[in-house]
Amino acid sequence: MAKRALKFTKERGTISNRQELRSTLDMWLDTLGNGNYIMAIERVQRPRSNPQNRLMWLWFTIIAQSWSEAVGRTITPEQVHDAYCQIFLPVTMPNGATIAGSTSRLSSDEFTDFLNKVQADAASEYGIRLPTPEEAMYAQYQIYMGTGYN
């Protein structure tokens, strides 16, 4: 039997199309044959947003500049990305080794959690203050102009 899905939104404690949902559900239930069934309700997860992604790469550019100055060699934003994915999104392989996970399939909420961890780690471990989303456009401009970010 094919899966069936009803989409709905609950806002301020109210489901706007409740009666329509009940009618559709009743119709579907009436068409079922005898047997055992499971009904599940899942919260829809929004994928990460483009502004979140831009903020992440801005932060990784700032961290890469700081780390490069500290170690005297170039560290790329991609290397920073991989380092933080290893720390906060590790994947355990069948042989027990861990590798860096990926940010590409994180939901918006999961991505926010990841960014919060990166921001806290950069501040506590390296003394790097990363711009808030509101400050990010200015920081991107400073980096583009080659004046750094302070």
What does this entry look like structurally?
With 150 residues, the protein is mainly alpha-helical. The chain is 53% helix and 7% strand. It has helices spanning 18-31, 50-71, 77-88, 108-126, 133-144; strands at residues 10-11, 14-15, 90-92, 98-100. Strands 1-2 form a two-stranded antiparallel sheet. A two-stranded antiparallel ribbon has the order 3-4. α2 packs across α3, α2 (50-71) runs parallel beside α4 and α2 crosses α5 (133-144). The longest helix is centred in the middle third of the chain and has 22 residues, at 50-71. The chain starts with 9 loop residues before the first strand and ends in a 6-residue tail after the last helix. 13% of the residues are buried.
Quick overview of this protein structure:
Helix content is 53%, strand content 7%. By secondary structure, the protein is mainly alpha-helical. The chain is elongated, with a radius of gyration of 23 Å.
What are the defining features of this structure?
5 helices, elongated, single chain
Quaternary structure type: single chain
Proportion of residues in β-strands: 5-15%
Instruction: List how many beta strands DSSP finds.
Output: 4
Q: Which secondary-structure class do the elements indicate?
A: mainly alpha
- Helix tally equals 5
Distance between the termini: 59 Å
Shape: elongated
Q: Helix-strand pattern, N to C?
A: EEHHHEEHH
Largest sheet: 2 strands, antiparallel
As a percent range, the share of helical residues equals 40-55%
Describe the strand arrangement of the main beta sheet, using strand numbers: 1-2
**What is Rg?**
23 Å
Spans of at least 5 consecutive residues with low confidence: none
For the residues shown, what is the average pLDDT?
A: 89
